[in-house]
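Reopening: structure tokens for the flavin-adenine dinucleotide complex, inputs below.
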Amino acid sequence: MNKHVSILVIGGGPAGLAAGVSAYKAGIKDVLIIERDVRLGGILNQCIHNGFGLHTFKEELTGPEYAARYISQVEELGVPYRLATIVTDLQLSDDGHTKIVTTMDEQGGLTVYEADAVILAMGCRERARGALNIPGERPAGIYTAGTAQYFVNLEGRMPGREVVILGSGDIGLIMARRMTLEGAHVKLVAELQPYSGGLKRNIVQCLDDYGIPLMLSHTVVKIHGDKRLTGVTIAEVDDKLSPIPGSEKFYECDTLLLSCGLLPENELSGQLGVNLSPVTFGAVVNESLETSVPGVFSCGNVLHVHDLVDYVSEEATAAGKHAAEYIQSGIVESAEGGSDEKVTRVITDGGVRYSVPSLLRADHMADLTTIRFRVGAVYKDVDVVTYADGRELARLHKRVMAPGEMEQLILRKSDLISEGVPSEYRITIENKAGQ
Ligand SMILES: Cc1cc2nc3c(=O)[nH]c(=O)nc-3n(C[C@H](O)[C@H](O)[C@H](O)COP(=O)(O)OP(=O)(O)OC[C@H]3O[C@@H](n4cnc5c(N)ncnc54)[C@H](O)[C@@H]3O)c2cc1C
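Re-run output (same inputs, fresh job):
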């Protein structure tokens, strides 16, 4: 027999934990968090470095310490959860209201839940070699940076000694330092783009402090080795990101770590028919973090890749509260606005790549809404400008903006609708190089 729950949270990482706690505190006791790992905490369990929680707790915690703050809330409140249980299927009932969630675990086998609302909090996975199309042999010694982090921090194994890192995302930068501290020789970090994909503080603390060179506009063009990696050929790339002939150089190494981006794990969301953004690969959500399927909410890295876990927790807390309101209202409304409801589309251009949310329903907006976004290149001394149907709402000067850092602005509802509900809210960058 199927089991009923009011809110089912998929994923017990920082997003799922904060969403579950928030929904529970908002009055929905019938919440269930499903986590496929044997412990709660998600990716934080392997992030033993410090630097977490500065915004939320005003102190520098390690990943496991940060996770523990939320896990203890789950335990103290008694928020139900299941470990070592994977959600394998997510469908809508025939009437379109109930979410049918199929889970699998070793002891209990298959369980089917009927949930009134679902919160998607599955995080993301790393882009592996198969997605990068690097020519050459297929020897051992090539790992994603996160896999290497798991080996070193959770299993106490060293993946190798002479290391090259491709990609300057935060995981790669953190692993450059970690491998060095464990006695490996990290020769260099090669980055295809002319800028780093990671946080500035990580470049300073993980590369500069250890004398590890960051080679921007460089990539691996060939992998050498039969059974085990023996080296990589690295070339400089031009402004179209194509390798420049004659710039190739061979580097001897036994390990190549890949830190080339993260992909939100949205296979289940796709099964359900949730609209996904072609830019973030996460769900398209409204001001309540509700996807195109009513009663299905999304938060954390499965929605868009976050740089700081504090923002994950903040966003997930909001998602949990909105999911509780959805249950308590008892009304199933279109997540994209009813037929007579005016909705505002959030448009991003001029260097702004995307925004979350991308749809605003004035009737559902709180006084203040947090809009998160990222830019597509490095900008210095520019203005972030917002418009409602062409009327300027706000102008914020930024000294530096970079793709590796998530930006956010707070939108006041009274400003947005002061002249009626606009059809378009636009975020753009102006005054680029004196423009
Ligand atoms: C190496 C690394 C270093 C970082 N360093 C910092 C830092 O210094 N400071 C900082 O603030 N942030 C840092 N972050 C970012 C922060 O850790 C992430 O933003 C945060 O963990 C994302 O939380 P999440 O819950 O969305 O995803 P995750 O932590 O990935 O959790 C998702 C959970 O969902 C589970 N799941 C997925 N699919 C299913 C399924 N089908 N069924 C059941 N369960 C499922 C997974 O097992 C996982 O536990 C770092 C991240 C990484 C990877």
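The mean pLDDT is 94. Residues 309-329 form the longest helix (21 residues). Marking as resolved unless the reporter disagrees.
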